[in-house]
Amino acid sequence: MSEGELARREDGDDRLGQEMAELVGRLSDDEIDNGTRGRLLGRLARLLAARARRARAAGLARGRWLTDVVAEIGPHIPVRDLQTLRAHHQGLTGERLADSLVRAAQRATTAVGATGGALAAVEFVTPPLLLSAPAQIVAETVAVAAIEVKLIAELHEVYGVQVPGSGTARGAVFLQLWAQQRGFDPLQPGSVAAALGLAARTGLRKRLMRTLGRHLTTMGPFLTGAVAGGTLNRTATRRLADTVRKDLRRAIGAPAPRPGADEDPA
């Protein structure tokens, strides 16, 4: 490949990456309607298909390409600060605010799962992507990962657990926390790195492939696929949130809330 062809390919990848980052940011917004979310998911699927065709088949099959894509867009996922979160959630604080965030994230991942699972006509990527997964299912995986990474980052805001570093470095940390399904421990900052090295990328790839595998099980007729996709995503998001919140309460020395109690650990 000549230098000119390589430059054009890299420029094309950059433009695709920027647009995918924008789409993922919009898909992580819990306030968009289902129709808009479906259109955004379809556009993301087409962009992923175009990006995949530029990659080597070996990287696609092992999931390395998908990991690179998510690592690229991860730092661009919009994360709201505590003041903005309170404004968007009727002034709630502490555990009630965290509850509201989790419910919103569950609604978003449920909607993504229902949209992806309900797709009857799917566009397959050429060359075969991740065991011939439909592009829409890959897009669903990326969208759910983004929503859950955003949830983890914003739960850290609610509980007042600060992750040091710049926006890009913090984005890498939150991706690792999503891969590990846990919260940040200020007493062990070395357990996650500010850059995605080989070990971190391996962990991220494994988590993405598990998520992709879950979404592949929803490939059924219209309603069965939609119901299964929404239910599996909602359950997984809640399980992740429960684990992260437990870790964050431990980090700030706050007890688990009693049922019905009003606590404000932030």
Report a brief summary of the structure.
This protein is mainly α and 266 residues long. The protein has 10 helices and no strands.
Q: What is the averaged pLDDT score?
A: 80
Number of strands: 0
List unreliable stretches of 5+ residues. Answer: 1-10, 119-132, 262-266
Distance between the termini: 55 Å
Overall morphology: globular
Helix content: 55-70%
The description of the largest β-sheet is: none
* Secondary structure tally, helices: 10
Structural class: mainly alpha
β-strand percent reads under 5%
How are the SSEs ordered, and which strands pair?
Elements: H1 3-27, H2 34-54, H3 57-62, H4 64-73, H5 82-88, H6 94-117, H7 135-159, H8 167-180, H9 198-216, H10 222-252
Helix pairs in contact: 1-2, 2-6, 2-7, 4-9, 6-7, 6-10, 7-8, 7-9, 7-10, 8-9
What does this structure look like?
The chain has 266 residues and is mainly α. 68% of the residues lie in helices and 0% in strands.
List its salient traits.
mainly alpha, disordered C terminus, 10 helices, 266 residues, disordered N terminus
